[in-house]
Write a structure and sequence with these properties.
The protein is an all-alpha fold and 285 residues long. Helix content is 60%, strand content 2%. Strands 1-2 form a two-stranded antiparallel sheet. Helix 1 packs across helix 3.
Length: 285
């Protein structure tokens, strides 16, 4: 009876993760932050991880959905935790996919950021080697369990990295405006103002960059990254995508008088301003 009850409890835990709703503000946060099921899984893994022998005793005597073997062939608690994490990742993908069904222009950025928030949370809470503590159910301090199995950091880390690359691709479009202009195409009038045709080359680049920067920034600035470490990491990753190139481009071509009346409008985003804008992202919560 004890074995049966323990097995049923383990199965119910796995089903609860699998059946966690993909929609609703409580289950899929509108701003893409860490969802409750992720913190629930972290808590569950911390609770069950110390019971290695007890789990093995149950697994030896009863076939489980994630491990049909019994006796000495039964797997250990590591495989159960692997199943829980795999089930959670599938749930996160489903929730992320449903962002794309929302009538929301930020969805294409929010979906990968949501998965990043949650997988980074898992890595920090379960994969970190730092010793820390948390309040337990009885409000007393309990030791945090870290989960150092290689598959965990590899699996969750790979999902995080893939979603980060998907997210940063949105910023890559800014680089298409930052191409050099051949010196032979820069022809000057007598007053050191570029000719009309030459000026258009730089106007198109600066105005294109401005338009895309404003569009992308407007979509991304309200996204939520509560974890300070992840926020700073992501801000720096966004900078690396285009900012050094933009800084060189701006310093090179802003010195040239390419517009007689509207030069300031084309140069409305000097590098320091762009850098500050990036530094203000992901802080709305």
């Amino acid at each position: 009876t004890t074995v049966r009850n323990c097995a049923r409890t383990l199965e119910n835990l796995a089903k609860a993760i699998q059946n966690d709703p993909l929609d609703g503000e409580r289950f899929r946060p509108p701003d893409g932050r860490v969802c409750p099921v992720s913190s629930d899984v972290v808590r569950a893994i911390r609770i069950i991880s110390p019971f290695v022998s007890a789990y093995k005793s149950v697994a030896k005597r009863r076939a489980l959905p994630w491990d049909p073997s019994i006796g000495e062939e039964a797997s250990g608690i590591d495989d159960f935790i692997k199943y829980l994490v795999k089930t959670l990742l599938e749930s996160l993908r489903g929730k992320a996919g449903n962002y794309m069904l929302d009538n929301d222009p930020t969805a294409v950025a929010k979906a990968p950021l949501f998965v990043m928030n949650n997988t980074f949370y898992l890595l920090q809470q379960l994969g970190s080697n730092k010793q820390s503590s948390m309040k337990g159910f009885d409000n007393e301090e309990e030791e945090l369990v870290t989960f150092n199995s290689p598959w965990f950091k590899e699996k969750v880390g790979n999902v995080f990295q893939a979603q980060k690359e998907s997210y940063l691709a949105h910023w890559e479009t800014l680089n298409k405006h930052l191409t050099s202009v051949d010196k032979s195409d820069l022809n000057y009038q007598k007053d050191k103002l570029l000719s009309l045709e030459s000026g258009r080359l730089l106007k198109a680049r600066f105005s294109g960059f401005t338009e895309d920067l404003e569009r992308i920034y407007t979509l991304h600035k309200g996204l939520n990254v509560i974890d300070l470490k992840l926020r700073e990491m992501l801000q720096n990753d966004v900078r690396r995508v285009f900012f050094p190139r933009y800084k060189r481009f701006f310093e090179k071509y802003s010195r040239i008088q390419f517009s007689k009346k509207n030069q300031d409008q084309y140069l409305k985003y000097p590098p320091d301003r762009v850098d500050a804008m990036i530094g203000d992202m992901y802080e709305m919560f």
